[in-house]
Amino acid sequence: MTKEANDIFASCSFDSLGLDSSLCQQLRERMSFQVPTLVQSQAIPFILSGRHVLVNAATGTGKTIAYLAPIIHHLQRYNPRIERSDGTFALVLVPTRELCMQVYEILQKLLHRFHWIVPGYIMGGENRSKEKARLRKGISILVATPGRLLDHLKNTSSFLRTNLRWLIFDEADRILELGFGKEIEEILDLLGSRQSMSACKEKVMSRFSEFQRQNLLLSATLNEKVNCLAHISLENPVTVGLEEKKVFIEQQTTLSKQFRSPGSDVDDESEQPDRHLNSLNGDYSLPTQLVQRYVKVPCGSRLVVLISILKDLFEREASQKIVVFFSTCDGVDFHYSLLRDFKWPSKLQPELVQKQMFVRCRTFRLHGNMDHEDRRTTFQGFKAEKSALLFCTDVAARGLDFPKVRCIIQYDSPGESTEYVHRVGRTARLGERGDSLLFLQPVEMDYLQDLQKHGVLLNEYLLLKILNSFPLYDQKHHVNKFVSVETHPWVLFLQKALESFILAESGLKKLAKDAFCSWVRAYAAHRGDLKRIFMVKKLHLGHVARSFGLKEQPSLVGRSFQVHTKKRKKDQKQKGMTKKRRVAGKT
Ligand SMILES: Nc1ncnc2c1ncn2[C@@H]1O[C@H](COP(=O)(O)OP(=O)(O)OP(=O)(O)O)[C@@H](O)[C@H]1O
């Protein structure tokens, strides 16, 4: 075994963990999993024993099998066999629809030889009545997003869950960050799964009632809210993969604290929950083989640099998969359309007639504003491709297991450092190679220190070397060693080409304007400590416009932005007045 493999895989077999032999055979033959990963070898025995477990292990280390295998082990052993009419035994809660599909697909494979155990899913965007019909027939292991689950718990009387034995929160912190805190509390109440309720729960007698409820929480990163959830849902839990962080869980005494929706702590600088957490959370465990870099790019050159890097990457290695993260849905739409339509050589070189796509590869997009079917097609399409580019928001940051992603580019900053960890976690999975590249503007460089606090160290990407490698008018240009990115001939040339192209395409121009407005808004919405690094007032909006290929000054760029700016100014004025009044009151 290589060193990387040693860090990932255990030196024991699935059978030695106590799993049923036909399930082990299924893992080996159908899934091609020869040995368990380290996290599986640690978690499976505890989960098999019925303990409540909190699993905190790096991205791509096999957490999904760690909880599914023990559940299937138990379910396939019931004698007589379980039937659909027994209802739901295990409920897996996940934050996004894509993750819901992914876990369901893994279940389908795992259950291949246990046909009497029925997997199923319910999630936002799907047809409710069809889901109702499926629930009525009975689903043994149900994967769900929280909102839709709550809906069915309240409104689908035929949804039988009296035999529920397992409740799993996969990507627990993300479920809570997305503002599902209230739903989770209601779900716990409706299922009688709160710690305090398990003793006094009314028991419905059946042949399964001898079994205790078992709750499991899994995530590669933790936060205060998960901690809170762990407290109310886990009874005497075992913690896997976070010995040093156990202290943190024990130190939290605010059990009665209610979960807050993300909206409620935006702008709440006084509390700064993350500062408190950071000091306790310690280092993140990232895949050791992941090569992490940052690239320092002046705002106005961001677009040119992004598409130049993509071009370079695909020219070096035509067959590879790359994921680029943006902060907004509009940003994804604009960049996706631009790359799809922008041809090269550009109009600036009319003598060269044979035009091609600027970046030669298939491009996909994924964000929460897309319709359900489009999301599903993208998810499946990008998964199946050998060479492709995915532009997405953080909807793809959690848990998604796209095979063979070689590089992650964070074009817009991830904000919270936990989000950085999950985004880069889409590559370098299970010991494979992987690169990540974080875009930062010169004024944002302090973000590196923020990451460093968690033991995340990045090296600088040699941008000028890449820029120098592009030929102008098909001839290598010789660039002065000390030229800056903004004044680099290639950057100037490509920027001009992009601006004329966008100006001529009215649809694209509209997308660029919308993306510009959304980007500024998202930038202004950075929370707590991050506001110190990502300061809107330090932005040159003209340069921001350039990064969307727009020549116009921001004040000309769309009404919605002006309305937003006016509103912000008004709010600020009002805040200022309140402050003044308060100060006046003091004196
Ligand atoms: N024992 C194993 N042997 C080989 N491959 C495995 C094994 N267990 C899981 N895998 C594969 O490893 C990959 C990562 O697994 P999984 O998605 O469960 O990771 P994860 O820890 O949940 O990641 P994330 O934190 O990003 O959600 C998947 O492609 C899965 O099929």
What does this structure look like?
The protein has 587 residues and is of the alpha/beta class. The chain has two domains: 14-194 and 211-243, 3-Layer(aba) Sandwich (Rossmann fold); 290-472 and 484-568, P-loop containing nucleotide triphosphate hydrolases (Rossmann fold, 3-Layer(aba) Sandwich). It is built from 22 helices and 16 strands. It has helices at 3-8, 21-29, 38-49, 63-75, 97-110, 128-137, 146-155, 172-191, 224-233, 246-251, 262-265, 273-281, 302-316, 329-341, 372-384, 417-424, 447-452, 463-468, 489-504, 506-524, 541-546, 559-586, and strands spanning 53-56, 90-93, 119-122, 141-144, 166-170, 214-219, 238-240, 290-296, 321-325, 343-344, 356-357, 362-366, 388-392, 405-410, 434-440, 459-460. The strands form three sheets. Strands 3-4-2-5-6-1-7 form a seven-stranded parallel β-sheet, with helices on both faces. It has a seven-stranded parallel β-sheet with strand order 12-13-9-14-15-8-16. A two-stranded antiparallel sheet has the order 10-11. Strand 14 (405-410), helix 16 and strand 15 form a beta-alpha-beta unit. Helix 3 (38-49) runs parallel beside helix 4. The radius of gyration is 26 Å and the shape is elongated. The N and C termini lie far apart (72 Å). Mean pLDDT is 84; it is low at 244-281 and 575-587. Adenosine-5'-triphosphate is lined by residues 33, 36-37, 40, 59-65, 220, 399, 401, 425, 429-430. It catalyses: ATP + H2O = ADP + phosphate + H(+). Belongs to the DEAD box helicase family. Residues 309-478 form the Helicase C-terminal domain. Keywords: ATP-binding, Helicase, Hydrolase, Nucleotide-binding, RNA-binding.
